[in-house]
Write a structure and sequence with these properties.
Blueprint: E1 30-32, E2 36-39, E3 45-53, E4 56-64, H1 71-94
């Protein structure tokens, strides 16, 4: 008699894309492009990576900004960074294409279930 110690997961693998690395950075259910790095002043760095997970593409952005030692200045820097990230998200969202025709039609919404 054999005891089963671990459950096994069965996921449908997502095929590699033409832009993904196709190496250890890609998992069973996601794919990742090579990092694009932008270095800034005084040790700041931004890294952006294209990721596909569950058939949806994402931009993964990591930002490293050195903060001042004085708490009041560090808080102002964090506040500025937060406002800049919000502006970035709004600008990227504005580039989104218009929805497909008929995508807004939802005849089942508002219908009563019996």
């Amino acid at each position: 008699m054999r005891a089963r110690t671990m459950a096994s997961f069965h996921r449908k693998p997502i095929p590699h894309t033409d832009w993904c690395t196709g190496d250890h950075r890609c998992g069973v259910n996601f794919h990742q492009a090579p990092d694009i790095i932008a270095d800034g002043q005084l040790g700041a760095r931004a890294i952006i990576t294209r990721v596909r997970a569950a058939e949806v593409d994402y931009a993964e952005i990591r930002i490293r900004v050195p903060l001042r030692r004085a708490d009041s200045l560090a808080r102002r820097q964090l506040d500025t960074a937060l406002h800049a990230v919000r502006a970035l998200l709004a600008a990227v969202a504005a580039v989104r294409p218009a929805p497909l025709p008929g995508a807004g039609d939802r005849p089942a919404v508002g219908r009563r279930a019996f």
